[in-house]
Amino acid sequence: MKLVEIRKILKNKSSKKSKESTLKFVLTVKKQYGVKVAVLNEIAKQIKEPDFELIENLWKSGIFEERLLASKILGKICKTNPTKTLKIIQKFSKDISDWVVCDTLATQGIRSIINLKKKNFLIFLRNWLNQKICGKEDLL
Fold it and tell me: Which domain holds residue 125?
């Protein structure tokens, strides 16, 4: 599935009610379509081939649903290239703006490769936690 097709589906499935609902639970959302998560799950199921470029393009948009979808697709394909997945997670982690995307990226985006890349993942976590965004100079 191509980015253009995905965006067409998201625009067609958007609703004011879904948009308002999201804003009640995710206060930091700035850009969104207003699409139910079930629609994102259905789109993710349709992605059959690993497409890291699609994932990166979805993320770059900054749109709430596109980032959620990128996280879900990443979780589906992460085992095809765990090293590349971890690099993408590192890149994305610098630009997370809300708890839903963070949670989806962590639980669906990389859960299945953590044991495969445990050492690399722990190094990444240590470095990430030590960044000033956490408000601590040295947590570990």
Answer: 3-134
How many domains does one find in the chain?
Answer: 1
Which tokens sit at 39? 């629609």
pLDDT tens, the chain, 140 aa long: 899 999 999 999 999 999 999 999 999 999 999 999 999 999 999 998 999 999 999 999 999 999 999 999 999 998 898 889 888 988 998 888 899 998 998 888 777 777 776 777 777 677 766 664 444 444 33
Cβ atoms 36, 18 nearer than 8 A: yes
Q: How far apart are CA 94 and CA 86, in angstroms?
A: 13
Model-level pTM? 0.83
Is there a domain that residue 140 lies in?
no
Q: Computed from CA positions of residues 49, 8, 26, 139, in that sequence, does the dihedral angle turn out positive or negative?
A: positive
Report if residue 110 sits inside a domain: yes
- 139 lies in some domain: no
Tokens coding 19 = 């948009």
